[in-house]
């Protein structure tokens, strides 16, 4: 990537600080980004009494909006897409992997739920670490965990091992999803935050399309079948390997290019480092405009590292562990106290309803369409149960199943465009409520219709409308909580959503062969409930981050 930087007699290259997590690392060359070559040369004196002291929002406005933010959008967006690929790839495996791994419908429900169980475990843990140690390092580690263990699953010869590796991969995904949105929002001016977070959320659609496209291109192909020792390496295993690549490349991009959040640095009392990040943003955004970075100080945050270091240096191992666990629960207590209580309970219900409904249905779309390949609707064919496993045949692979999955994934596009255009004018609350209500109606109609074509059309409607709800929830969730709680809160609610996703997938696995109407109508009812509860949330349109 080329660097567009103004150079004059005294100008220096901008930096994207690679590692702000320990102050003593500022004098070390270890872990530098490609923008950090002259870091020591551009540190400014921020202690002068004559300097104007700015709030976070004022400093963001001075840094401007431009090239840096578009670069940030691409890097964070690719990470968001990689999470989508890793989550959704399992759903495309079901029509073929069920034969190689000898899976019943209940086994498939457990398999699709495994990554969500990992995300539930990882969500709050990574969110808490991001609030204490910084967003960037958590993103690098969690994306690496996601990619490495997701790739290793491709060579697992047994179902239990494949399940375990998918679970560990889910722990990584559970960290990156909530932290990405906290990290990204903390670079954005409030006037553009809604639209830019909506743009970031559209990369989920890109990941969805990428997963569906890879499945369509790879899984039906016979050339991807070969023997790896005693392992029969079918094409779906190659698909699993390819799905791990986006996460690994995202980790590399964050490690090489991205700085720590200036909002986090301010709250941690690391003023000089925060100003250096603002200088990077300014120089990239003002490239070619001949403007000099103004000197200023920052209003100090309230969270000091010394408070956290006490848990490292005092007491026995048991006492330190108890102290760490106690501190880890503090954000949850704060979320459900005083002024944050009502919004927290409302978000808890909304996350549960949308996660049960969306993931419960979405993860089963390829399998459901494979079952109605000869016509009809999923619930109209419940009497056509699966034959015993030893009588099943998954080959040759029916390519129409993956083509339909690709069409449904692509139908996200209108909803994403609508969200970007309308988020800042309508606000996240209105979009969230309306889209959940429409999603509920579309799912109910999927149960009612009687033909495959009608099922496909309504599935596309559900896809296009439900993505508006997710995008609105991403915006609202980042604006409802202060910096010291933001990642922890999103991690907690993500964990709640994963519990719901697990329950949804297990419910589908248990009932899809015997009573398809129950999980489908339950999804519709929960989405309706989420849409009504969303009306209780406060309005956050274009509010400043606290």
Automatic annotation (TrEMBL):
Membrane topology: Multi-pass membrane protein
Keywords: Membrane, Transmembrane, Transmembrane helix, Transport
Cellular localisation: Membrane
GO annotation, cellular component aspect: membrane
InterPro entries: MFS, MFS_dom, MFS_trans_sf, Sugar_transporter_CS
Domain spans labelled Major facilitator superfamily (MFS) profile: 72-542
Superkingdom of origin organism: Eukaryota
Protein known as: Major facilitator superfamily (MFS) profile domain-containing protein
């Amino acid at each position: 990537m080329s660097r567009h930087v103004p150079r004059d007699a005294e100008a220096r290259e901008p930096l994207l600080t690679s590692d702000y997590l320990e102050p003593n690392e500022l004098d070390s060359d270890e872990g530098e980004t490609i923008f950090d070559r002259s870091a020591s040369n551009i540190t400014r004196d921020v202690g002068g009494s004559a300097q104007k002291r700015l709030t976070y929002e004022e400093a963001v406005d001075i840094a401007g909006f431009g090239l840096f933010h578009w670069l940030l959008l691409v890097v964070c967006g690719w990470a968001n897409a990689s999470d989508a690929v890793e989550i959704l790839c399992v759903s495309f495996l079901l029509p073929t992997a069920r034969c190689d791994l000898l899976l019943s419908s209940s086994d498939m429900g457990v398999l699709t739920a495994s990554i969500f169980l990992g995300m539930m475990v990882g969500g709050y843990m990574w969110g808490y670490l991001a609030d204490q140690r910084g967003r960037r390092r958590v993103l690098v580690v969690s994306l690496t965990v996601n990619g490495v263990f997701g790739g290793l699953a491709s060579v697992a010869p047994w179902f239990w091992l494949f399940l375990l590796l998918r679970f560990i991969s889910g722990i990584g995904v559970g960290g990156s999803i909530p932290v990405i949105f906290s990290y990204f929002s903390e670079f954005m001016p409030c006037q553009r935050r809604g639209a830019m977070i909506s743009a970031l959320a559209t990369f989920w659609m890109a990941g969805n399309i990428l997963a569906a496209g890879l499945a369509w291109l790879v899984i039906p192909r016979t050339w991807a079948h070969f023997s790896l020792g005693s392992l029969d390496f079918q094409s779906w295993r190659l698909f699993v390997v390819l799905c791990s690549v986006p996460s690994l490349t995202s980790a590399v991009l964050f490690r090489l290019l991205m700085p720590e959040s200036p909002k986090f640095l301010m709250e941690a009392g690391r003023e000089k480092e925060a100003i250096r990040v603002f200088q990077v943003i300014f120089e990239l955004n003002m490239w070619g405009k001949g403007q000099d970075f103004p000197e200023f100080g920052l209003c100090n945050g309230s969270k000091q590292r010394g408070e956290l270091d006490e848990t490292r240096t005092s007491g026995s191992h048991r006492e330190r562990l108890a102290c760490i666990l106690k501190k880890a629960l503090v954000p949850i207590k704060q979320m459900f106290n005083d002024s944050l209580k009502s919004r927290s309970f409302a978000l808890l219900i909304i996350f549960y309803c949308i996660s049960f409904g969306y993931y419960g249905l979405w993860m089963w779309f390829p399998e459901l369409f494979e079952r109605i390949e000869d016509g009809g609707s999923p619930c109209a064919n419940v009497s056509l149960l699966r034959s015993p496993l030893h009588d099943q045949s998954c080959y040759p692979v029916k390519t129409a199943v993956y083509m339909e999955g690709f069409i449904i994934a692509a139908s996200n596009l209108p909803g994403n465009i609508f969200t970007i255009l309308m988020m800042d004018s309508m606000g996240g609350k209105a979009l969230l409520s309306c889209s959940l209500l429409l999603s509920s109606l579309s799912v109910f109609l999927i149960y009612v219709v009687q033909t495959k074509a009608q099922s496909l059309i309504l599935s596309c409607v559900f896809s296009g409308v439900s993505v508006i709800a997710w995008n609105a929830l991403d915006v609202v969730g980042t604006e409802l909580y202060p910096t010291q709680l933001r990642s922890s809160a999103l991690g907690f609610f993500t964990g709640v959503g994963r519990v719901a996703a697990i329950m949804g997938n297990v419910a589908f696995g248990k009932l899809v062969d015997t009573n398809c109407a129950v999980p489908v109508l339950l999804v519709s009812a929960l989405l309706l409930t989420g849409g009504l509860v969303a009306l209780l949330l406060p309005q956050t349109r274009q509010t400043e981050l606290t």
